[in-house]
Amino acid sequence: MSTLIILLALASLGSVLGLAGGIILLLRGKILQETSLHLISFAAGVMISAAFLDLLPEAIENGSENTFLWCLLGMVGFFLVEDFILHFHHHEEHIHRIKPMALFIIAGDTVHNFIDGIVIAAALVTDLKLGFLVAVATFAHELPQEIGDFAVLLSTGMTKVRVFLANLFSACAAFAGALLAYYFLGSTRGLLGPALGLATGMFIYIASADIMPELVRAKKRDSKWHTAGFFLLGIGLMFILTKFIPD
Question: What are the residue ranges in the chain where pLDDT is below 50?
Answer without folding.
Answer: 88-98
